[in-house]
Amino acid sequence: MRAMMLTGIRALEMRQVPDPMIRGEKDVLIRMASVGVCGSDIHYYVDGKIGSQVVEYPFTVGHECSGIVEKVGRDVRRLKPGDRVAVDPAMSCGQCDQCTCGRPHTCRKLRFLGCPRQAEGCLSEFIVMPEECLFPLRQEMTFDQAALSEPLAIGVYGVRQSIPMKGARIGILGVGPIGLSVLLPARAQGAGRIYVTDRIGERLALAREAGADWAGNPDSEDVVKAVKDREPHLLDAVFECCGEQAAIDQALEMLKPGGKLMIIGIPKVPRLSFPIDTMRHREICIQNVRRQVHCVQPTLDMIDRNETKVDIMLTHHFRFDQTREAFDLVAGYKEGVVKAMIHF
User: What global pTM score does this model have?
Assistant: First the structure.
């Protein structure tokens, strides 16, 4: 089969590699249909690493995907060849202390598609996944929507972890794919007012269309003052979705006493700092969001019920052999890109 492989910094090559094999009794062979380009893929493309996760070349990235079942292991019961599926890229062991206490996303032996030293990614014609990671699609759902369920599930999980009540006032700093993946379920699940920031005008426009009550650019206005003027008692929760120190500082100034800072963005730097005086006096809670937990099916149901304008994120489309063009577009934040999709 063909696979698009990283061979160096900003280097991608289409290569012939062996077809993946069904080895386990509950394995499923899937033909890829759609793959979304994620910010983490771009980190590997541009920097060759995310923190301690360093690429060993050649390597295939990609984890936001959907496809068609080609073949199933003998103990697979929920799926058959021809079924259309969304893919949860996280493969947990089901037996460690984290899995047994309801935290499969921090499994001690976790394998994740497109993560160095864990599993090759989905930018290939076929992949093999355990049955438990696959979710059948209704006929009305598109492959692109199904692939978007992966980042959107992160937003669904983050919203569940943070918004204390219907009518909560929240901020989202950075409204790229993850920021929009927070905005959509937050609006669907009853957030009162939603304030967003971004440096890209096209993304601010999309956020307004998706339901943001206010959108501002920190390069051209004092976004903290703008939020404080509109919310004197400040915000219940702020989602930092861009991985920037400046956004962390802004978020803490926007949070009310007892508010919650949700860190979802992946910083390029190894350390961030926090003003302890502000945090201590307001008793601010800080929570990192590590992917999602049991939120894929609820996310697919949300899309099925048309509770979110998920298609608003689909801004650019490429053929499989145009993957490098897609990566360069996303890496350069060109043409107002939010989500670039690869089609097989």
Answer: 0.94
